[in-house]
Specification:
about 425 residues, Creatine Kinase, Chain A, domain 2, 15 helices, 15 strands
Length: about 425
Amino acid sequence: MSQLDRAKFSETLKAGGVELVALSFVDNSGISRVKAVPVDALAAAASDGVGASTSFDFFLADDSIVVTSPRMPVGDLRLRADLDRVTPLAVHPGWAWAPVWKYDQDGEPHPQDARALVRTATERLAEQGLSAKMAFEIEWVVAADDEDVPAGGPAYGFSALSRHSGYLRDLVSALDSQGLAVAQVHPEYAPGQFEVSVSANDPLGAADDAVLVRETIRAVSEAHGLRASFTPKFDPDGVGNGGHLHLSLWRDGHNLCDWTSGRAPEAEHFAAGILDRLPALLAVGAPSVVSYLRLVPGHWAGVYRCWGVENREAPLRLIPGPAGSRDRAANFEVKCFDLTANPYLVVAGVLFAGLAGLGEGARLPAPVDRDPHGLDLERLPTTLAEAVAAFAADDTLWTGFGEELATTLVELRRRDVENAASLSTEEICAAARWRY
């Protein structure tokens, strides 16, 4: 887009009532960070970028910074607004949202730009003549603004929907007006817990959607006198919030995850690559100490390395879809991820793992058709330290992410482990409750 076209774009937004644009990115600890510009400065923000410290790469969720080098505070990045994804915000009148690309001062892509990493992984998939569709399920718990106790009610209960019907209506309306097609919304298992699903998108779009959905939920919740928490473990005795990733693999308009199509071998190789690397992927998809309080048997979180058809206790679940629409609906679901993760890193990691499976011709083991607990199956990492060790030893993910980003992720995760070593489970839950 030319500078003139960018200026016209800004004028169109301004005519629609937009005065300010929130430029957002998700850091390596899964926290959405933001800078903002007046709409008149959006064109410049798209071409030249907005300055940001390189220190954001080293933030922990509690805003402390892991100093990995004496030169860490030196240098600057340019955050360039992605005009293809600018969205006026129904929840914040006068505001629009735009994710950013990260560049250095010389115009070179920043090696720790998670959005750029998704673009790279998607391009590598396209080189194989393939594409992917993805979507995140978003689960959250709401509590009154001055309380840490969520509202009670039967699991999936109509009474919970009735109590919050206006809240959910406003949420769906806001998402719809922002171009996010809601597939379903409903109360979940835990007290005060809800889930919303939006339609599948391309990998980058799916990660962008996950960011926008969460921030919309936060804003609508606040408007209703509520706080929203996406933490994987709101309290030690609860079931926790997941951030399941749904994905399907496509070639020439055909869904390769449709097991009845005869085109499944490539999807099997792709899925096997993911299954083989789940221990390492947990350092990306379940990247916090609190994540591992959720990853326990019996909570539909998927804690044994296996897969199954419609098996909700398997971390990799094949969803065939209803008869008559399987060519469109069939997909895999990765259940062991949560919303402390940076969705861009999750998407990129899954694509790199799947691509490796394709290159290796990897095969899935026999599907598990029962509760895997008690079977002779490998347990996925039970601590963040174990997941980090698996990530550090995985050549596919280390190479895909690149030396600089992979090293930073390992250092941040290890510091999180050290910081939580003396905390009780109650203290771990409390520390994460309103950070995510």
